């Protein structure tokens, strides 16, 4: 083990056993202490709340079979499911093992610059790549994953490092982030700790924590998206000790944001932003910053060759999810799965570019916005609100998901004044409005436009001032 990992193990064991006074005595030097009240007191770096929209990418050995989901190995040999077992029987020789897929993870078409350009075109302000999923394969040349990483076997390159460099060199203001699974389904050290009721920490100290330090120190991600924590308590993972180091002494201590998956019982309770559960979208304003991590492919985070067109969310649906998420104070982390040979397939690319086209017109309603006093409209369905201070003026944005058939839309939430002005993002003229006949809300007349004149194709944003 490297010297830094040895020191890490020593410090971790000091804290766990509370047996070395000089180790414990150092806590006073740090701003954040290794306990949840202190960790949770750290303000979330402002860039994250302002970003609103990010791209998730699940990529690994599971991208080779690209069948069912990224949990392929587990569904085949962990807790077998019939479709996975039958798929292997029909298509692969007897005795074929999951590691036999690794030489096929070739990534020969992987062009990090192209990835960066597509991500930038999507309008996303951050990207989160899987550094390691539950299969344990690391997408970087980890010293702690011998012969089960992207350098020792195919694709013989540092996938993480290449993308980190491309994002920083070829995008305007996209933050680079990494997903990391704490546990590994079949790692013998983890299984040994698990068998003993997690009374030992061999896997944590020899694999998990050294890997975390490695990706933070080598790639300096602004997002650390933790997962795979649910089988063991945070004490097993030494989560608070690691987070105290991350927030106090790491090279990204001032910029990094983390989620809430740091051990059994921490989800939706501790950490930077709350991811709670996959595809978390409460539909109401939350007290704590949260993120809706979801997939364009409704059934999988990894690429699936067996996906049908109906399995993909449309751009219209994705814009609606973005509007609802941001209105309720969340960020949207939208996932795609690259292929084993290193491509972002056309349907994913199309969705990303179309989201970017929408944001080019309507980004003022999304980026750096804040929730308004109402999240969705009280009279008309499919209208979500955001707000933003523009100088001394508060602008309120109504994101209208469906163009009204009558060309007039009733908004129940705004209270108009004689100075109220309403425009549509992407359209230069002011819109006409009047008080609603009921006395509650306003009726806005949408502009008369043919399809070629519409500022965008999916949802339309009304900007209201002095309401």
TrEMBL record:
E.C. no: 3.2.1.51
One Gene Ontology biological process: fucose metabolic process
Domain Glycoside hydrolase family 29 N-terminal positions: 29-364
Keywords tagged on the record: Glycoprotein, Glycosidase, Hydrolase, Signal
Membrane-spanning ranges: none
Signal peptide (UniProt feature, chain positions): 1-25
Keyword Protein transport recorded: no
Keyword Glycoprotein: yes
Family matches, as InterPro entries: FUC_metazoa-typ, Fucosidase_C, GH, Glyco_hydro_29, Glyco_hydro_29_N, Glyco_hydro_b
A GO term from the CC aspect: lysosome
Enzyme class: hydrolase
Ranges of residues in domain Alpha-L-fucosidase C-terminal: 375-465
UniProt xrefs under PANTHER family: ALPHA-L-FUCOSIDASE, ALPHA-L-FUCOSIDASE-RELATED
Family indicated by similarity: Belongs to the glycosyl hydrolase 29 family.
Assembly with partners or alone: Homotetramer.
Record-given protein name: alpha-L-fucosidase
């Amino acid at each position: 083990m490297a010297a830094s990992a040895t020191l890490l193990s020593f410090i971790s064991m000091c804290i766990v056993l509370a047996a070395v006074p000089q180790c414990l005595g150092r806590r006073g030097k740090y701003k954040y202490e290794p306990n949840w009240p202190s960790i949770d007191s750290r303000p979330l770096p402002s860039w994250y709340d302002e970003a609103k929209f990010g791209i998730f990418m699940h990529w690994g050995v599971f991208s080779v079979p690209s069948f069912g989901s990224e949990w392929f190995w587990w569904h085949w040999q962990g807790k077998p499911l019939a479709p996975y077992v039958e798929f292997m029987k029909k298509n692969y020789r007897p005795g074929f093992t999951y590691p036999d897929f690794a030489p096929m993870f070739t990534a020969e078409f992987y062009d990090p610059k192209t990835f960066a350009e597509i991500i930038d075109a999507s309008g996303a302000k951050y990207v989160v790549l899987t550094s390691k999923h539950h299969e344990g394969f690391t997408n970087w040349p980890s010293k702690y994953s011998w012969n089960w990483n992207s350098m020792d076997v195919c694709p013989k390159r540092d996938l993480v490092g290449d993308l980190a460099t491309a994002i920083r060199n070829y995008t305007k203001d996209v933050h680079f982030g990494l997903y990391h699974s704490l546990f590994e389904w079949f790692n013998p050290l983890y299984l040994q700790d698990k068998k003993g009721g997690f009374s030992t920490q061999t896997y944590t100290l020899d694999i998990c924590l050294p890997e975390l330090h490695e990706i933070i120190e080598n790639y300096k991600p602004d997002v650390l998206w933790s997962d795979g924590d649910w089988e063991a308590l945070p004490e097993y993972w030494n989560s608070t000790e690691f987070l105290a180091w991350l927030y106090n002494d790491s090279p990204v201590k001032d910029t990094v944001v983390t989620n809430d998956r740091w051990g059994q019982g921490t989800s939706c309770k501790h950490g930077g932003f709350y991811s709670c559960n996959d595809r978390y979208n409460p539909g109401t304003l939350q007290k704590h910053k949260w993120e809706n991590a979801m997939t364009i492919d409704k059934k999988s985070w990894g690429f699936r060759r067996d996906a049908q067109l109906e399995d993909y969310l449309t751009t219209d649906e994705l814009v609606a999810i973005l509007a609802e998420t941001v209105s309720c104070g969340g960020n949207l982390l939208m996932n795609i799965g690259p292929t084993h040979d290193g491509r972002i397939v056309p349907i994913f690319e199309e969705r990303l570019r179309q989201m970017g086209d929408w944001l080019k017109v309507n980004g003022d309603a999304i980026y750096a916005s804040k929730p308004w006093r109402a999240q969705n409209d009280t009279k008309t369905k499919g209208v979500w609100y955001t707000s933003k201070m523009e100088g001394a003026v508060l602008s309120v944005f109504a994101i209208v998901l469906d163009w009204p058939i009558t060309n007039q839309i009733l908004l129940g939430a705004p209270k108009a004044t004689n100075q109220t002005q309403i425009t549509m993002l992407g359209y230069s003229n002011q819109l006409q409005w009047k008080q609603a006949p009921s006395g509650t809300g306003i009726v806005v007349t949408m502009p008369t436009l043919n399809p070629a004149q519409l500022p965008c194709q999916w949802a339309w944003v009304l900007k209201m001032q002095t309401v």
